[in-house]
Amino acid sequence: MSIDQTQEEKKLLDIPSALLRVRGKEHTLIRMLHLFLNSREFDQLEEALAAQDYPLAANLAHAIKGMTGNLSMPLLFEASAEAVVQLRQNRLSDQVLARYRYAYARTRALVELLLRDAGE
């Protein structure tokens, strides 16, 4: 996995930082990125939002925040953190939701590309 990244890519997934978190073990990072792609929390969050189940949505957004923090995904981490704050107040603005969905889509696309390029 290449650690040569643009600043924009680093906002989505900071590979050097992520590798530090897994003590430089690229295979561990790759496994964790696969877990990210297969995580049900993202779909479950959308379902909770559609049902306006804000307590469940807050818990799911908090789990996503933790996952993305551990994987060094700054943009999605920040968007998830914003969502958690609002969801704990039983609300979610369209602006925060749009930022979260944008960050998720961009981060997911980059992870898929990196894994494909790594032969995973």
Note down, in words, how this protein is organized.
The chain is mostly helical and 120 residues long. The chain has one domain (14-117). The chain is 76% helix and 0% strand. The chain is built from seven helices and no strands. α3 (26-38) crosses α7 (94-117) and α4 (41-50) runs antiparallel to α5 (54-70).
Keywords summarizing the entry:
76% helix; mainly alpha; 0% strand; single chain; 120 residues
What letter string, H or E per element, gives the SSE order?
A: HHHHHHH
The overall number of domains is 1
Mind describing the biggest β-sheet? none
- How would you sum up the global shape? elongated
Fraction of residues in H or I helices = over 70%
* Secondary structure tally, helices: 7
Give the number of DSSP strands: 0
* Average pLDDT for all residues: 95
Instruction: Report strand %.
Output: under 5%
Span between termini: 10 Å
Q: What radius of gyration results from the CA coordinates?
A: 14 Å
Give the helix/strand layout.
Elements: H1 7-12, H2 15-21, H3 26-38, H4 41-50, H5 54-70, H6 74-87, H7 94-117
Helix pairs in contact: 3-7, 4-5, 5-6, 6-7
Short description:
The chain is mainly alpha-helical. The chain has one domain (14-117). The protein is built from 7 helices and no strands.
